[in-house]
Write a structure and sequence with these properties.
7-stranded mixed beta sheet; 366 residues; Aspartate Aminotransferase, domain 2; Aspartate Aminotransferase, domain 1
Length: 366
C-alpha cells in the first residue's frame, strides 16, 4: 500500500478524525464485514444499521455516563438547526428563556430564539470582544425561566466554561458542539445537550442531542403545532429513524465513540487535551511575540487563538505554516489572527510541530 502524506489539520471543523477510525472506514467502505454492501448503500431500516445506531447510542451513554431518564437522538441540520428547535420545543408562550452570550455562536442562538419567543440575555461579554466567560455574579437570571442556554466552548473566540454556571432550578441547555466528549461532562446537570459531530465526534452530517424525559414531554405537547421534523418527541418515538438518517455519519461517529472508550474514556482524554493545550499556551506566553486573545482563566482546550504584532506578520505566519504542513491556522474571518483547533483526535506530535515552527518563525521575524 502506498504511504499517504497527511498534513497536520488544525481546522475548526470538519476536523481531524482518529487514524484508526479512518483506516477502518477505508477497509469497510466497499463492503461491511459479512454484509456485502457499503455503509453508503445499506437501508436505514436494515437490522445492520439498527445495530450500528444502537451501539452508537450505547457507547455515548457509556462515555457520558448518561442517566436512563435521558434519550440520545441522532438528528440533522447541525447546531444551527438546534438554535431554532430548542426554543420551538421548550419555550412555552408566556415564559422567557435566558441566554448567556459568550461568542458568535451564542449570539446566533439568541437571534433564532427571539424569532420564537421571549428571550432575556442573562449576561454578555461582547464588550470584552468575548475574550472571557462571565462570572457567576454577572448572571441576571429570570425567575422561573423556561431554560438557560449556554455555549460551553466558543470555537471562534477560543474560550470555554471551566465549570457549569449555577442556574438554580432552571433547565440548563448546552451547545457543546466544539468540546463534546473532550472532557468529562455532568449530563445530569443538564436538561438538553446538543452538538454538531464535526469537531470531536465524527464527520459532518449528524447532530447529537441528549434530552431529559421531562423536556421530551414539553416537546410532545407541541406536536399539534410544530413541523414534524422539528419535534424532539417524534424523533425519540422513532429512535431517530423517522426519516432517513445520515447513515454514514452515524456509523463513523460510532467508530469514534469506540476509539474514545479505547483511549480510557473522558477522564483519560482530558489529560491528553490539557497537555496539548498547555504546550501551545506556554509558547504563546513565552516571549510576547505572540499574544493570546482569550483571558487566561477562560482559555479553551480545543481552540487556541492568538495574534501577532501586525496583520502582515500574521499573513506570513499562515502562509509559511501551510507550506510546512501545518494547515488551517488562519483565524475565523470575524476575528482574524490565528486559531489552532486541537480536538481529541489531533495528534500531540502536531502540537509539537507547531510549537517548533512558532519558535523558528519568531527567531526569523522577532
Amino acid at each position: 500500500m502506498t504511504t499517504v502524506h497527511r498534513v497536520h489539520n488544525f481546522a475548526a471543523g470538519p476536523a481531524v478524525l482518529p487514524m484508526p477510525v479512518l483506516e477502518e472506514i477505508q477497509r469497510d467502505l466497499i463492503a461491511l464485514p459479512g454484509i456485502g454492501m457499503s455503509i453508503l448503500e445499506i437501508s436505514h431500516r436494515s437490522k445492520t444499521f439498527e445495530s450500528i445506531l444502537k451501539q452508537a447510542d450505547a457507547d455515548i451513554r457509556t462515555l457520558g455516563n448518561v442517566p436512563s431518564n435521558y434519550q440520545v437522538l441522532f438528528l440533522q441540520g447541525g447546531a444551527s438547526t438546534q438554535f431554532s428547535m430548542v426554543p420551538m420545543n421548550l419555550l412555552a408562550a408566556g415564559s422567557t428563556a435566558d441566554y448567556i452570550d459568550t461568542g458568535s455562536w451564542a449570539e446566533k442562538a439568541i437571534k433564532e430564539a427571539k424569532k420564537v419567543g421571549a428571550v432575556s440575555v442573562a449576561a454578555t461579554t461582547k464588550a470584552d470582544n468575548y475574550a472571557r466567560i462571565p462570572a457567576q455574579s454577572e448572571l441576571k437570571l429570570t425567575p422561573g425561566a423556561a431554560y438557560v442556554h449556554i455555549t460551553s466552548n466558543n470555537t471562534i473566540e477560543g474560550t470555554e466554561w471551566k465549570t457549569l454556571p449555577d442556574v438554580g432550578g432552571a433547565p440548563l441547555v448546552n451547545d457543546t458542539s466544539s468540546d463534546m466528549f473532550s472532557r468529562p461532562i455532568d449530563v445530569a446537570r443538564h436538561a438538553l445537550i446538543y452538538a454538531g459531530a464535526q469537531k470531536n465526534m465524527g464527520p459532518a452530517g449528524v447532530t447529537v442531542v441528549i434530552i431529559r424525559d421531562d423536556m421530551l414531554q414539553r416537546s410532545a405537547e407541541k406536536k399539534p403545532t410544530l413541523p414534524t421534523m422539528l419535534n424532539y418527541a417524534v424523533h425519540a418515538e422513532n429512535t431517530s429513524l423517522y426519516n432517513t438518517p445520515p447513515a454514514f455519519a452515524v456509523y463513523a461517529l460510532g467508530l469514534v465513540m469506540k476509539w474514545l472508550i479505547a483511549q480510557g474514556g473522558l477522564a483519560a482524554i482530558v489529560k491528553v487535551n490539557e497537555r496539548k493545550a498547555a504546550k501551545l499556551y506556554a509558547e504563546i506566553d513565552r516571549s510576547g511575540f505572540y499574544r493570546g486573545t482569550a483571558h487566561k482563566e477562560s482559555r479553551s482546550l480545543m481552540n487556541v487563538t492568538f495574534r501577532l504584532a501586525t496583520e502582515e506578520l500574521e499573513s506570513a505566519f499562515v502562509k509559511e505554516a501551510t507550506a510546512a504542513g501545518l494547515d488551517g491556522l488562519k483565524g475565523h474571518r470575524a476575528v482574524g489572527g490565528m486559531r489552532a483547533s486541537i480536538y481529541n483526535a489531533f495528534p500531540e506530535a502536531g502540537v509539537d510541530a507547531l510549537v517548533s515552527f512558532m519558535k523558528e518563525f519568531e527567531r526569523k521575524r522577532g
